[in-house]
Design brief:
338 residues, mainly alpha, globular
Length: 338
Amino acid sequence: KQSTTRSVWIDLAKFISIFLVVLFHTNPHLDGYIFDFLQLLRMPAFFLIAGLLFNMDKWDRFVDFLKHRFKRLIVPYCCFYLTFYLLWLFVGRRMVGEAEMAIDPLLPLWEFIIGRPNVVLGPYWFITCLFIMQLLFYFMKKYLRSNWLIIALSVVAYLFLLVFGITDLPWCIDQALQYMPFYAYANILREYINRSIPRKRWILLLLAILTILLLLLNNLLTPVALIHHLLYVVAGFCIMPVYIAFCKYVAAKTATSSPYAVIRFVGDNNIVTLALQNYIIGFIKIVGVATLGLNVLTTEHYIINVLIAFATIVIAMGFAFLINRYTPFLIGKSRRET
């Protein structure tokens, strides 16, 4: 029962994170501290979940781990990217107009090679970043053992890059170091999940308040990049136990309910949503203008943004269903796994 419940809360956390990712790509964004708070539950939480699922004991050899990660991440990266590149090359850039036509047709291919997609499939920076992060973490975990030391080294390495202005490294190595602390921290929580997540509500409330205070302070010190990053990491560490406790509480209430199957399917197909979200949002924008004479993505009603985010995920899951059923290789799965 415990493992089932744990699976439910992880799926719920995946669902919340992908929803926030999609919501972030609908404009305008929420402003101020609410936006900053939700940001912690967006990409950091994504990497937290990935870290929770990492188990060193499953892999006797690095080559086995590499093959598994290549199949689940790089195969979908190649399939989706090259598909959308061809669509962009022959259809998309002509539809958008002069700005896209002015882009060198070889630029997206170069971005594909260096693992920093922007023109064709921007959200897939997460895929290359996660791939590099997991490879780095594997070796760090194998030779350093201490997750706290891994956290410290990744923070120092990222701050080093900031100090010397080193950005846009191939395959998002810089961003992998930026989010590595959350991945390693999650692996710590995985090892001590029952002890590390406090059961007393006042502790969780205290952590939530501390997170808000850190975000307030961070806004005052935003121009100071080094301090900004350190406070962001600490705030993330504070809110993650609260986030996990919330997901576990909700999961315990809904583990046997029918929405769980939907939540799990969405969580299992985040890679499809990441690939399709911008194009689906663009489609909704076109439909809104054509049918209502309204660009729904420029309104200041955030409820509309929430509805657009849900609609985007629903449409993406329609494609995910077809992919899982007929072409599972696109997402690194076999028919047996679907």
